[in-house]
Every structure is written in structure tokens, then in C-alpha cells.
Amino acid sequence: MEIDYYEILGVDWDASPEDIRSAYFQAVHLYHPDANPDPKANERFMKVQEAYAILSSPQKRSAYDAKQPVDFKVSPIRVSIQYSRSAVQTISEPQLLYALMEFVGTQELDDKKIPPTVYCIVIDRSTSMAGERMDMVKSNLMQFVRQLRPQDLIIVVTFSDRAEVVVPLSRVADANRMDQQIALISTGGGTEIFHGLETGVNLLRVSRLGRSQRVLILMTDGHTYGDEDACFELGRTAATEGITIHGIGLGADWNDDFLDKLSSLTGGSTSFVSQAKDLKRFFENQARNSSVLYSRNLRFEFESDEGVELRYAYRLLPDTAPLIIENPLVLGNIFYGKTLKILLEFQIAPLPELSHFLRLAEGKLWIDLVSMDNSEPKKLFLRVNRPVSQALENELPNSALVDALARLTVYRMQEKARQDVVDGNTEAASRHLQHLATHLLAGGDRELAHAVLIEAEHIRQSRRFSQEGGKRIKYGTRSLVHFSELELDK
Known about the structure:
The protein is of the alpha/beta class. It contains 15 helices and 16 strands. The chain has helices at about 5-10, 15-30, 40-55, 60-65, 130-145, 175-185, 195-205, 230-240, 255-265, 275-290, 400-420, 425-440, 445-460, 465-480, 485-490, and strands at about 75-85, 90, 95-105, 115-125, 155-160, 165-170, 215-220, 245-250, 270-275, 295-305, 310-315, 320, 330-335, 340-350, 355-370, 380-390. The strands form three sheets. A six-stranded mixed β-sheet has the order 6-5-4-7-8-9, sandwiched between helices. The chain has a five-stranded antiparallel β-sheet with strand order 1-3-14-11-12, with helices on one face. A hairpin with a 3-residue loop joins strand 5 and strand 6. Helix 5 (about 130-145) packs parallel to helix 10 (about 275-290) and helix 8 runs parallel beside helix 9 (about 255-265). It is globular. The two termini are about 40 Å apart.
């Protein structure tokens, strides 16, 4: 299809005449030469005129559709969006608006063609990992291998100031041989994460087995120095190649901001491990939730109207993690039979009364289908828009969105406390933590509430978060955001 008139107008192939007319008027408002002097806008305006001339005529539209490929009407992903309000109000002060987006694959899985998952475990073997910590990693890794599917594969890499391949690409059936290789891992040296990360990513690159899912699990107990930017760049490259990176921080001295950003760049997540049961739970969840990948590295390349800022984005499913606010926005992976669920928060500047609609985020959704491993990513046009109204009637808030915001409340309270500490406002940070503890107690989480109260007192005395307490609260509240697929079906 040389010219996609549906994409030009930003509508689906089955759009009604009213949808097409509405999209046309919106596009004219944006790109008409009288409203937008940019030469590129004029070029876009001409394409809009051409698209509307074809799609607004039943005869021309039918003839155009008949020339398209057989599968052009088949959307690989179903998208639904729920908003906190039906419209944006023209008021003289900033306002917030929330959008809850759900993405589900539409193609059926052929059970006879379930591809393997390739796991690359990258382990920090620096001196600080010696003793019980490394023993914990070894024993839990051995158990993890035995929980995987027979067709899955494992790679194990260790690093300090250099990287070493301990277990080359191996079938799960070779678990006994892997045990021997893992048992021989020794410790020593410093922590230079890029060496291990680069080796792991390169091994996953050459391990492309048809439509296999490729997952890198990075385990470290310390900071890396001087190679952070190189790690982030490698993470971005890995994401474009369909590699997901999950981070595991062991103990209290690792850099949570670094691991959060690295994993988020690839649609992954970070976990905090303070004791053996935490690591056991992580590996059990990985094995239990191991799913067949449908689309990897879903990303949204968008534009917004002036005065609209995407302030916050959070993935609620399949695993919980805040997203990095950048364009394109990396949303994560979609698995067969499961939902990718994203919450967006927009801040909107005061609007003039002449406004009719507002583009919150509009653009291309890039979809890399695993079933079409050798093809270019597909794209869908995605619109996150709202009409503008001078007066809004009282309306009941959407229950699913209210539930999502309620779950995020406790996590964002600790985020606010962290920012208060950065700003030097430790009294405010302590108050936020006390409010957080109250919420946790009301929800029955006494253990985490107790940790929060201890941290509030620590901040009063030291004017900073403790290494362990800060991480315990951050990842403890993050775990409370989690949805299950059963809850989505209710």
C-alpha cells in the first residue's frame, strides 16, 4: 500500500463517515496554512485533502480498499483507552487528565509452534559478592533452570573488571552439567557492569532461534562507575533488537536509579533482593509467568499540542514499572493471551476558549510482531485526544482508572518523599512517609508500614534515605501496584 489514506487521517479502516469527517476537520485545524505557517504543515494539509477526497466518497473508498493487500484490515493489536474525564475544560489554571491504555494481541497462538525463551543470566562476581550472597545466587539459579520448559535455553555470564562465559548457550535438559559450571563461579575484582552487559547482549544476538524470546537478567550488588552511559546506549540498542533486560539489586549498596533506567529502556523491570526468599520468589515468578512473546518492544512515537505535557507514565501489566518519559515512549512487551496496561498522566496548561479539541498524544504505535521475525515493524496510528468544553457536567469517574490511580497512590507518595529529600525539604519528606505508613496500615501491610515509619525518623536525623530502607520502601510499594489477569476479567 503506497499511500495509506487511513493513516494520514489517523482513523482505522472501518471508521464511520462521521469518524472520517471529524478526523478531517481536526487535521484541517492543525495543518491549514492559515493556522500553521510551517511548510511541512502545508505539505501535510495537501495529503489530508487528498485522503479526505478518497475516504469521504463511498465509491472511491470502496475502489481504494479493493486495491489493498488482503490483510490490511487485520489489526495485530486491539487498543482500548479510558479517560479520567470525557472532555478537557477551558479553565484559567493547569489541569491533569489521565488515560488508561490496554493493548492485547489479536492473533491466535499455534501450540505446535511455541518458540523457546533464551535466558542470559549476567552475574556480578566482584569481591563484595563473596560468601553467602554468591551461594544464594548459585543455588537459586540452579533451581530456576529446573523450573523452565524443556525447549528453553540458558546462558550464564559473570563479570567483575572483565566478563566470562560460564555456561554457553545450553538446553534446559543439560541442567546437571550447568550445575557443575555454576558451582565453580568464584569472586574477585571490581564492578564494571558494561563488560558483563555487552557480553550478554552479544550472546543473545547470535542466539536468535526463530521467534524466540530473549531475556537478560542482570544481577549486581554494587555501583558501576564511568560506563553508565555506555550501558544505557547498549540498552537502547538491545530494545530495538527485541531483548528485554530485567535488573536484580542484591543487598543495599547498588544503584537503583541506574538499574531502573536500564531495565525500563527495554521494557523490563527491576527487583530488590535483600534475602534468599526474595531471589527465590523472583525466579519462581519468572518461571511461572513465562509466556510466549507476541510483540516485543512496543513503542509510541507521538506529538502533543502546545501546552500539553506527558508528566508521568507507568506500566501496570504485565510487570509494574515507571516508564522513562521520552519520545518514542517504550511501553514494553505484549504476550499471547495477556494484556499490556499503561497509565499516562498529562498536565494541560490553561486553554483558550476557542479550542475545540486537544491532542494529548497522537502518532505511530510501532509493533514488532514475533511471528513475523524477519519483517519490518508494523505501525498503527494511535490517538490519545479529548474534546474541549467550557462547562462539564458532573460525571462518575471510570472505575478501572480510579482503581489504577488508587494502586499508584502509595508508590507515588514515596516518590514525592524522595524528591523532597533531593530538594532539601526533609520535614515534608518525613510527613509524606507518615501518610504513606497510614495508607499501608489501612491496607493491612503492617511490615512495610513499620519500615516506612523507621525511615521517616531516619530522614529527620540524617536528612537522607538509608540505602536499605529507601529501596525496601520503593520496591515494596511498587509491588503493591500489581494487577492480575483475573482482576482484569472482572
